[in-house]
Every structure is written in C-alpha cells, then in structure tokens.
Amino acid sequence: NMARKFFVGGNWKCNGTVDEVKKIVTTLNEAQVPGEDVVEVVVSPPFVFLPTVKGLLRPDFHVAAQNCWVRKGGAFTGEVSAEMLVNLGIPWVILGHSERRQLLNESSEFVADKVAYALSQGLKVIACIGETLEQREAGITKDVVSEQTKAIAAKISNWDNVVLAYEPVWAIGTGKVATPAQAQEVHVDLRKWIHDNVSPNVAASVRIIYGGSVNGGNSKELAGQPDVDGFLVGGASLKPEFIDIINAAT
Ligand code: PEP
C-alpha cells in the first residue's frame, strides 16, 4: 500500500550475548535493502544490549525496547521506564507482546495504559494483539482482537506513532504461519473496527503488521496482501534471512 510505509520489526526476545548481538548487527549493516523511504526497519534487542546496538547499527535502521514500565519511573524494582528509553534516544517500544500477556499476566487494560504512557513521553509504539488457538477455534478471533484494540483506543487519541502488530498466539514461535488469506482477513477486520470506532483517517493510515513464524520463504506472499503493512519477526530476526524479510517490502 502506497500510503502506509512498509514496516519490519525484529523482536530478539530474551536472546543473545554481546558477541552474538554484534554479529547480528554486522550482518544487518552489510545488507542490501531498500531505503528508509520504502521500508522502516526496527530491531528490538533486550534492554541490556540497547545502547550497544544503537551505537553500532546503521543509521537507517532503528531500535526498540521490548517493554517499559506503565507510568513514570520510581520505586519499581526491576522495571525500565519510558523516560529512560527517551533519555537513551531509543525511539520505539514493543508493548503487549503475547509472551508478556500470557506469562506475566499483562491485561489489555495494563497494556493500554503502557501504550498511552509511552506515547505521552514521545516513544513510538508497536502494540501487539492476537488470539489464542482456542479462541480461533471458537470463532471469536475478531472479537478478541477488537477488544484488545478497543482497550488501547480508549486510552489514546493520536495513532500517528502506533504500529499495530497482529500476532496470533498459535503462530508465534511455532512454525505455523497464518496463511496470507488468514492474515489479510484479520487485518481487514481490524481496519474496519478502527474505521468505525476511531476514524476513517486513522484506519487508512495506521500500519497493521503481521507476526507469527514469518521467515524468508513465506514473507513475500504475506507482504503481497493489501492490508499487511509489514511484519514483526521473532526467531528469523536473529538470522540472515531477516534481510530477505526486509526485502519482501518491494
Ligand atoms: C514474535 O515474537 O513477535 C514472533 C512473531 O515470533 P516468531 O517470528 O518466532 O514466531
């Protein structure tokens, strides 16, 4: 889609050593990819590697944190605040990843509060939503992703700095990628929900990216779907095939 710049995020999750991280950055820095005018590339290392990666990474790629605290920092042991990310010049943060929703019991309201606070501090947000296998099989995918989006929509008024990542839980880290038709169907439902409940302008401009077992082999066909505006990539973002996924933008 011409109006929405293709977006490729790499979620490194809780992986890597200093040496491994440097090696991935070297591979990215040497890669031939379209310019920033065609594709926006954002990689998300664990917090402790953020300054290293930001310092070494090519200037046309950007970095994201994988989480941040829900409000202003202070007496919250073990947390990292949005203010700290801003202070370090980290432009993006991933919020509401299904691993955090599931393993750390982050509710849609808590995620929405984080999104609103991060935006208020000037961060750009990759907000993750998606249904479980059980929910898909029960035929309630559309309701689940609408509810997750509604929680966010209730707490923000400006979507300019939000990318919505549709990540079906059954597809994350499983090798079971959504078919292009399955991804397209949910993205259309989401865009329609946003059209009806936020605004037609936001619906037309917000990037809705797909995540869940995207790899170098399946990215091209997924990228061809009119409402798939990019990807959030986990496992494959640690490998050279991430370059092929970036190149699926064209
Ligand atoms: C993710 O963690 O956001 C993800 C999509 O993981 P994977 O690509 O490994 O399925």
Fill in the keyword field for this structure.
single chain, 250 residues, alpha/beta, eight-stranded parallel barrel, 8 strands, globular, binds phosphoenolpyruvate
Runs with pLDDT <50, length 5+? none
Structural class: alpha/beta
What order do the strands of the largest sheet run in, or round the barrel if closed?
Answer: 1-2-3-4-5-6-7-8
| Number of separate strands | 8
Bound molecules: phosphoenolpyruvate
Give, in order, the helices and strands.
EHEHEHEHHEHHEHHEHEH
Mean pLDDT: 97
**What is Rg?**
17 Å
Strand content range: 15-25%
Overall geometric form: globular
Largest sheet: 8 strands, parallel, barrel
Helix content: 25-40%
State the separation between the terminal residues, measured CA to CA: 11 Å
Protein name: Triosephosphate isomerase
InterPro entries: Aldolase_TIM, TIM_sf, TrioseP_Isoase_bac/euk, Triosephosphate_isomerase, Triosephosphate_isomerase_AS
GO biological process, one term: gluconeogenesis
Pathway: Carbohydrate biosynthesis
